[in-house]
Amino acid sequence: MRKIITTEDYQKRSSGSLGWIAQRVTGFLLAFILLTHLFMMHVHLGDGPEPVSAEAMWERFSTPGMQAFYLIFLYLAVWHGANGLKNVLDDYLHGPAARWFKTELVWLVGLGIAVAGTLSVFAN
């Protein structure tokens, strides 16, 4: 017979402080990575701005360094978004079953987005 997880059991397992710290760290890293992305893709140095073609984008994505950069960007963004959504929903869903379902659903959707993003990074 399965034990029903109570609110007290949930609170004993996790105070949420690790998620809070991780949210701040990923937010800081995402800001740095976003500025790097904007500089690499949209700030043109030299002769002036040139239109970015699809071929140029695929050429950039074909290098392992850029693939690693965008995978890190993707995984941090998915984790940051899923964790943030989970925290917001925690304020509105109070029952243990609802909280469990919400947590599983948020992470399952996040996993789907991460898989789709990974496939698109390696799609060239």
Q: What does it look like?
A:
The structure is a single chain. The protein is 76% helix and 0% strand. It has helices at 7-13, 17-42, 54-61, 64-90, 96-121. The chain starts with 6 loop residues before the first helix and ends with a helix. It is elongated, with a radius of gyration of 19 Å. The mean pLDDT is 82. It is mainly α and 124 residues long.
The share of residues in helices is over 70%
What's the alpha carbon Rg, rounded to whole Å? Answer: 19 Å
Task: Tell me about the largest β-sheet.
Answer: none
Output the helix-strand order.
Answer: HHHHH
Query: Can you count the beta strands?
Result: 0
Unreliable spans = none
* DSSP strand content: under 5%
Mean pLDDT: 82
Between the first and last Cα atoms, what is the distance in angstroms? 50 Å
Number of helices: 5
Structural class: mainly alpha
